[in-house]
Amino acid sequence: MSNTVMSNTVMSNTAIARRGTLRIATAGSVDDGKSTLIGRLLHDTKTVFEDQLAAVVKASRRYGDGETNLALLTDGLRAEREQGITIDVAHRYFATPERSFIVADTPGHAQYTRNMVTGASNADVAIVLVDARHGVLEQTRRHAFIATLLGVKSIVVAVNKMDLISWDEAEFDCIAKEVSEYVQALPTPVPVVAIPMSALLGDNVVDASANTPWYGGPPLLEWLERFDAHPRRELGGRLHVQRVIRPQGGEYADFRGYAGVVNGGGFAVGDAVTVLPCGATSTVAALHRAGKSVGSADTGHAMVIELSSKVDVSRGDVIVVDSGRVAPSVGETVEADICWMVDQPLVVGSRWWFKHGSRTGRATVTAIDYHHDLASLDQEPTHELTLNALGHVQLLLSEPIVADRYVDNPVGGRMILIDEATNSTAGAAMITSVMP
Amino acid sequence: MSLSSHPVNAISPQASAHLDSLTDEAITIIREVAAECENPVLLFSGGKDSAVLLHLAVLAFAPARLPFPVMHVDTGHNFDEVIEYRDQFVKDLGARLVIASVQQSIDSGRVVEDTGPRASRNRLQSVTLLDAIAEHGFDAAFGGGRRDEDKARAKERILSFRDRQGRWDPRQQRPEPWDVLNARIRKGEHLRAFPLSNWTELDIWNYIAAHELPLPTIYYTHTRTVVERDGMLLSVGGPVVAEPGEVPYEAVVRYRTVGDASCTGAVESTASNVWDVIAEVAAARITERGATRADDTFSESAMEDRKREGYF
Ligand SMILES: Nc1nc2c(ncn2[C@@H]2O[C@H](COP(=O)(O)OP(=O)(O)O)[C@@H](O)[C@H]2O)c(=O)[nH]1
After folding, report:
1. Which 102-131 residues of chain B touch chain A by CB within 8 A?
2. Are A336 and A268 within one domain?
3. A26, A31, A140, A201: which to mutate for ligand 1, most atoms within 8 A of CB?
């Protein structure tokens, strides 16, 4: 290995890593001000560059917007600029001295819900915008529902355009209460905070507003900087093997390492482990992160694990720490919440490719239990799930998977379905149960 | 809001934790695409983003060798230092280099070169790239594109589908929940993989500092004869010729991006090492593509249009 590769990696100190990068998704109905809010965050944290701003000023004039339309910072596709809507997720980045942020600006239109799912799937926090004049709309509820199902750890309700309702405290309280009550009634409720703001004018985005003396909380950015997104509980370390690293020759002729991402908990050298589904046991002999040997590894780390004994491990297998609190389930019969993302409907008997961790195979739909009515929160019987529908299904897989419930460990509980004919990603499934 | 223009010589703990998580993410993507695809290739220009990408790819499989080749789409309009650097870096990392030549595409009549003093070969690269992908049967190409570079790139998936003609359809992108990568394609189609999607220019420099990566010398301050054109400093002597009215002069500059020499501009800078550059980037008020790429300032959707045709 050459010098350049093995040089000193700067590894983090865990205390800071704990508050690490925050992933945010924006959600809410069209025109509630999502893009404007992100533009405002970027602008006020000095992340917007002069040439971008100049381009936005020019484009604002072209599209006939009166004032500089900060939304044009994130609506990057020509079709989006022309139609004045967000079609697909745009990712934006900013950092403060406190922490780094990755923002997914997601589309508000119901027909692009699948792109909203893509944007929100990795988020720690969802900022759900509400236009203070219109209050809570169907899309507000839909997005709050999807965000909690996908496992965001908190929802921030940005009650926006407060400037247009004269900073009315009673109106704000009413909207805050409505969203909060709705979220607490969801299958997977999370804490909700509400902030009165004007994304356009900047009130309570980065700086506290003088227009809301009745509001005691922090402005949005300060809240985001302080938020602790650390996972709630640990199950025990798992690693879905992506690849077996075998140099086959030279100095490392006998080296055999298993590469993958740690999830559900940590690993340490010396830990007793089991390889699933086969059940072989061994201990962790060495751990490597980004080419460097380390004593332990945490959730999210991309590792190579060496085991102390020769066991048969290949891509798709899962290495699990024996001392964990909860062992993953192994099985071919899966129940899951699913968000449907293609025109071709999901019906009983239909067959798809599945991908779970590093394992792929075939999945057959054996039942559709219900679909979620997002307005009433009722679970209604249905014989198909159409584009953008959310439902609960049962699947029979062609081979067993080693999985967790999505609520316990999102990495171990997520699965995608792929259309066999078009190869398009058709569904995002969140596993609720796995049985042999 | 790290706007400090004071010199720095260490990465803050926050930035370092962020860099580690970006590194984990990139390595995971590289491993997954290599596992799912039969014949991937890594696009390597000799620029800073592709140097970071190649370095990460080597780390992803260490101590085994990089399991796929590296390809340079060579416009023939190069900075000499970059070619020297390319060959040395690839050799040091033990990778295998394939070269796809725009000159050959021109000679064989696959593309017609623009003429005139402002002609650029940048756009022609798409054809050469797609031809090389077909010729070698590559089913996936890793690129160093970052979402923060451009508004069209901000919309790009990590694993991005290209049809038989190499086209990108931004309105029909495959959903990519949880970044679970769907690498299924039919014969003749291919994928572009962007492991650095979530990196910013500053993250790239922090990585270069943390790993002490070598870079082409033109990334650091030097004296060069330039003309100012459309607010950009273009090096004269190579493919760029001074037009009537343009007065070449000596300037103290460095490059923020390294692309086709005909359309890549230098910026005035005295940054002589990686820490100077980090301080400069942290305080920069203009994006890297805006400052240095004539091809992108052309129109509002220049990048989107080129990407639809198969560009990097
Ligand atoms: N008065 C006022 N207008 C706003 C505010 N936030 C957004 N807007 C306007 O509302 C419209 C829709 O905003 P946009 O960000 O495009 O909404 P999106 O569809 O949710 O991304 C634009 O004309 C904005 O200028 C606000 O706080 N106050």
Report:
1. none
2. no
3. A31
